[in-house]
Amino acid sequence: MSSLTWKDVPTRTIDVGGVPFVYRELGPSSGVPLIFLHHLMAVLDDWDPRVIEGIAAQRRVIAFDNRGVGASGGLVPNTVEEMGRDAIAFIRALGYEKVDLFGFSLGGGVAQMVALQAPDLVRRMILAGTGPKGGGGVGEVTKVAVLAYIKAALTWSDARNFLFFPRTPDGKRAAREYFAALKERTRDRDRGISMQARRAQLEAIKTAGRSAPDDLSVITQPVLVANGDCDLMVASSLSADMARRLPNARLTIYPNSGHGGVFQYHQAFVPAVLDFLAH
């Protein structure tokens, strides 16, 4: 077991079809790895170390920047289907034939694409703060996100204060703790998200929201679905609808929390994930 923590684990690069993809990994070298797929406008430094390190205490965790994100090369595609194909190519480039997936927000949409496009690759899946393709409100994410980013600019703050956490005393405290954790890494930080990546990701989300629903009944792997009960970006009703359509899913809704419910409730979420992955 490595003694490294998330704040000092090195950033690695792998060639994926001629494109450099950056990633970081932590935890035991044996067993099925858990691949982290991150949210809208996020890079490697936006993963909550409390979640990464908690899970990496028992499982191999690999977080990466998909094509065009952060320090990875290429351009971000404007559909979740293409993002899924890129994620599959990255996983296969690492040499894995079986992985678990943790998709948060946009990453949850990408995780669904991976499971649909390469079902043999996926053993188990965690979908947090996300919904199904064609789930009406998913298309509203762009509007909500833009308003939050405007509000953040006017108040010199991070938009995730408004998007991830409720504006309650508990929510504000959770936000402070979350942002403090994100700042722990001070060296070898990732490159910021580009304007091209922002536009393409928002376009992908809008397109997914307007698309015909996928047949989720073909995803027979065990799935853990989680969300906050006051999610402004992806309503918990959409997460519940997705869980109902997945034949082997269980749903957890965290109370008095928003899009970042799994971070606000990391002390409950991490053991739930480890228990889920252990079976």
UniProtKB/TrEMBL annotation:
It comes from the Bacteria. InterPro entries: AB_hydrolase (IPR050471), AB_hydrolase_1 (IPR000073), AB_hydrolase_fold (IPR029058). Signal peptide: none annotated. Gene3D superfamilies: alpha/beta hydrolase. Coiled coil: none annotated. Residues 33-262 form the AB hydrolase-1 domain. PANTHER family: AB HYDROLASE-1 DOMAIN-CONTAINING PROTEIN, HYDROLASE, ALPHA/BETA FOLD FAMILY PROTEIN. This is Pimeloyl-ACP methyl ester carboxylesterase. The lineage of its organism: Bacteria, Pseudomonadati, Pseudomonadota, Betaproteobacteria, Rhodocyclales.
